[in-house]
Amino acid sequence: MAQILSGTKASNEIKQKLKEEVIQFQTEYPNFKPGLAIVQVGDRDDSNVYIGQKLKSAAEVGVEAQHIKLPRSSTQHEVLECVEKLNNDTSVHGIIVQLPLESDNVIDAHLVTNAILPSKDVDGLHQSNAGRLARGDLDSCILPCTPRGCMELIKRTGVDVRGKNAVVLGRSKIVGAPMSDLLLWNHATVTVCHSQTADLKAEVSRADILVVGIGKPELVKGDWIKPGAIVIDCGINSIPDDTKPRGYRLVGDVEYSSVKEVASWITPVPGGVGPMTVAMLLKNTVDQAKKSYEKLAVATDWRIQYLQLNLKDPVPSDIDIAKSQVPKDVSVLAQEINLLHEEVDLYGKKKAKVSLKVIDRLKAQKDGKYVVVAGITPTPLGEGKSTTTVGLAQALGAHLKKNVFACVRQPSQGPTFGIKGGAAGGGYSQVIPMEEFNLHLTGDLHAITAANNLLAAAIEARMFHEATQSDQALYKRLVPDNKGQRDFCPIQLRRLQKLGIAKTNPKDLTAEEIKNFVRLDIDKATITWQRVIDTNDRFLRKITIGQGSQEKGHEREVQFDITVASEIMAVLALTTSLRDMRERLGRMVVASNKSGVPITADDLGVGGALTVLMKDTIRPNLMQTLEGTPVFVHAGPFANIAHGNSSILADKIALKLVGENGFVVTEAGFGADIGMEKFFNIKCRYSGLQPNAVVLVATIRALKMHGGGPTVVAGVPLPKEYREENLTLVQQGCSNLIKQIQNANKFGVPVVVAINGFATDTQAELELVQQISRENGAFDAVICYHWAKGGQGAVDLASAVDRATGQPSDFRFLYDVKLPIEVKIETIAKEIYGAAGIELEPLAREQIDRYKKQGFNDLPICMAKTHLSLSHKPELKGAPTGFILPIREARASIGAGFIYPLVGTMSTMPGLPTRPCFYDIDIDPDTEEILGLS
């Protein structure tokens, strides 16, 4: 007499164990919640019963199951679209499609099940999982639920499967075929029987283990069974039975009454394999959820293939080096750094945008180490901050095998076609493809241009219409009648709230309330919002608008800025979410009304539209270095009137992706007195991130200039003082380096000096700078040759940075934002620049007083001054002291969130030189290869 293999009892034990497993996993990962999605097409009664059982069991275990019921009218495309949506939902770890699909349209069930991601195919029906099972890769596939349940029942008999004769009766894709594979790779000798088997009874009678799933009621009789065999009955059939209330009874493919007399173990029907199928479905879901969570919620070491450099001496041009390297497809790079398919939108093969959902997915992950690259006060040639940023990232990744991201600004096309050229780094430390980096990239700058100019157009249009219409006429047009109904749109409700009007029905407003609502009453003299274009065009620095025949009498003198000078660019760089961006764009102040009240983008009704134009720009752009390490290129705010740093979001995503032991290397614009100070006091204040180290880039060339060397002019050969050893100039010029080291130390962050080596530098000069740096507060000072050698030339720097980031963090801000505006300005002037004090000119005093009255006192300060000196005078080199810093104006970027005092005259629209870079830029019409870009 056979012992009963109760699937009900076994499944209950498994479900209880799964419940405990989920609870235990949640103690380590509180947000863990396994998710199962069941897709059904149609409304079959039997399918509804099965699904109901699965949903009930899922709830018992702690699996969050959802039932997606599609109508019979669903097309194959609609079903596939549903599956794809679930594939992209990171809260769903398992997907099953309930078969059969009951549709009025032809649907290929095989195509649908294969559309499920293999990692979410908890039914085990995907051809990838089936293929892995067939070749014995049991650890890398998901086992089908019914065969897995059968194996679990067999194991509960205590019988070792190894070497046993196993017969599988049936060869279906769901049961028979995978069951035979599973038995085979558990080392049984397997025979598969089916409807065409010649002597079915003889084959079955040899089985030590018999699994039946052929769909014929009670086909297998007791005299077919080898005495002592284990019999697993997967069949479930209904046969007429007048003695039953429902008129039928359920039986298996095995004649239970006769077989149990011969077998040693047998599964009943019902209550045998059926409950085990549901239990294994839940086990597969929990297993995949745990794997997914461990893989996706916690960053791991990347399986990254680095690119080899073919170093040449002399070093070729930047464009020749960039072209000589074949970058990886960005889809490959994304996989290497553990980005999910749904988190990456490809823009061609070499660049992509990355979703902000990464931050939420990895919220349990500790951030990596945060390193900012700054520099001493530079020469007009620049001292190689971008090159050092890239070279350091290449060294940390390709040579020290650390997870590392470089985060850099996107360059403006103005300088690219003007005098400066591109900004992808240089030599063997570059971002590639260089031409895509320096040109349109993914269109972010174009979106900023469009949004900025839409706001400019909104200002002019509103002033025009207010000047030509009555209050009632304005009101009728702003709140139009739609089939007899007037409604305020959401942005208009915001304005009403700002005005203190609690009414929501347009009919209820009084005449005075209507006037306040419709009349912005902009004071033209206070308009600060300018149009922008991403081209160096000096003739747009001052223009007259409103000269059309219909705009007579509304002429106004305005100007164009370069796109990166737009406040919208600064908003992009400082925003922390799409919601935050919407709020920042809406509260941008464009002018004041004639009563001195600030007028915002939301007052103009355009805040939401600006966000729509900017919705794609918020996602960082993924590229790579010459050695195949990842780079985020995102945002490029003007480093004079804005804070000159790449985006907070790029840094946040990168810090999660690299993990606790990884590194994010980001760059601050201009000298440390500008870029680094703003990085700390503005960017870190809004991001909440704390830097672990500063890399301060210096060159012998720049130090000699600060030590009294001749003027350095772009495009003119360097005087001999810069080409010959001169320790006196170097030592005197180190005053600037020492001051910048001291500035970084004021924030409690260790400083590593990176001495960017040139062929004209002597060993004595380089070692002198190392000595002076270490004696004056630097954690270390390292000579680097990454321009000529790539990451290998920055390995010593990478090692020093690694050690520096291991130091205890004591990060602090320079000032409390609640201090008066002028006190904060004076603190920066004295502490960072070395000034004796500040002098507020009348206009600046007037503006500061207005900002205080308008409630903007508690914003950080973003100083707008020359980058060529610690002082306000470009010709004052070294570390001048005792000067008075004049504050000419104090402007405000309320949406971005800072006050920017102007020290001297700041040009926000560069001009083209006599011979711009565009002379050398062309394209080969046959190969489409871009020529001359640098």
Automatic annotation (TrEMBL):
Please tell me whether the keyword NADP is annotated for this protein. yes
Q: Cellular component per GO? A: cytosol
**Top-rank taxon:** Eukaryota
For this UniProt record, the keywords arranged alphabetically read as follows: ATP-binding, Cytoplasm, Hydrolase, Ligase, Multifunctional enzyme, NADP, Nucleotide-binding, One-carbon metabolism, Oxidoreductase
Q: What is its main location?
A: cytoplasm
EC number(s): the record gives 1.5.1.5, 3.5.4.9, 6.3.4.3
Which pathway is this protein engaged in? One-carbon metabolism; tetrahydrofolate interconversion
InterPro entries, per database record: Aminoacid_DH-like_N_sf, Formate_THF_ligase, Formate_THF_ligase_CS, NAD(P)-bd_dom_sf, P-loop_NTPase, THF_DH/CycHdrlase, THF_DH/CycHdrlase_cat_dom, THF_DH/CycHdrlase_CS
Q: Which Gene3D superfamilies match?
A: 1.10.8.770, Formyltetrahydrofolate synthetase, domain 3 (3.10.410.10), Leucine Dehydrogenase, chain A, domain 1 (3.40.50.10860), NAD(P)-binding Rossmann-like Domain (3.40.50.720), P-loop containing nucleotide triphosphate hydrolases (3.40.50.300)
Segments forming domain Tetrahydrofolate dehydrogenase/cyclohydrolase NAD(P)-binding = 144-292
UniProt-recorded Gene Ontology molecular function terms:
ATP binding; formate-tetrahydrofolate ligase activity; methenyltetrahydrofolate cyclohydrolase activity; methylenetetrahydrofolate dehydrogenase (NADP+) activity
Q: Where is the Tetrahydrofolate dehydrogenase/cyclohydrolase catalytic domain?
A: 5-123
Family per record? In the C-terminal section; belongs to the formate--tetrahydrofolate ligase family.
| Name by which UniProt lists this protein | C-1-tetrahydrofolate synthase, cytoplasmic
Organism the protein comes from:
Lymnaea stagnalis (Great pond snail)
